[in-house]
């Protein structure tokens, strides 16, 4: 049986450290927007899409989809639609479902529609989703 010398132990330790560093670095994908770290590229990409892709330029709030972002912009930042809603009673609240053309006078009518027609759960954050985002 051959004895290992100090130099050989040192070489093995350095090799092991390189493997550990490589594994550690490859397991962490960092979000370029907020710095959060993720175990895989797919998790990081999913985070970016959900947390940063549909953000409002007026208030920096993030929304779960482009459609909800546009609803937010119309309902919160569009002064013309606000005027129409207040002075003329125009239906300016649109359905959350992109393929549905229904429009409503207020959040409450939309909520009832989403629960009855599209089977949304009663505890869904109906108002918060377009005002404060995710």
Automatic annotation (TrEMBL):
Gene3D superfamilies the UniProt entry points to: Classic Zinc Finger
Recorded superkingdom: Eukaryota
PROSITE patterns tied to this protein: ZINC_FINGER_C2H2_1
InterPro entries in UniProt: ZNF511 (IPR039258), Znf_C2H2_type (IPR013087)
Ranges of residues in domain C2H2-type: 56-77
PANTHER family per UniProt: ZINC FINGER PROTEIN 511
Protein name, per record: C2H2-type domain-containing protein
């Amino acid at each position: 049986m051959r004895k290992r010398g100090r130099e050989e132990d040192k070489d093995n330790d350095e090799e092991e450290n390189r493997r550990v560093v490589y594994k550690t670095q490859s397991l962490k994908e960092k979000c370029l927007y907020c710095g959060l770290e993720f175990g895989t590229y797919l998790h990081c990409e999913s985070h970016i899409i959900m947390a940063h892709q549909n953000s409002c330029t007026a208030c920096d709030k993030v929304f779960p989809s482009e459609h909800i972002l546009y609803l937010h912009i119309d309902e919160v930042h569009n002064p013309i639609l606000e005027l129409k809603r207040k002075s003329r009673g125009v239906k300016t609240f649109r359905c959350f479902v992109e393929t549905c053309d229904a429009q409503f006078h207020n959040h409450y009518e939309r909520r009832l529609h989403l629960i009855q027609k599209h089977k949304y759960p009663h505890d869904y954050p109906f108002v918060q989703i377009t005002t404060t985002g995710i």
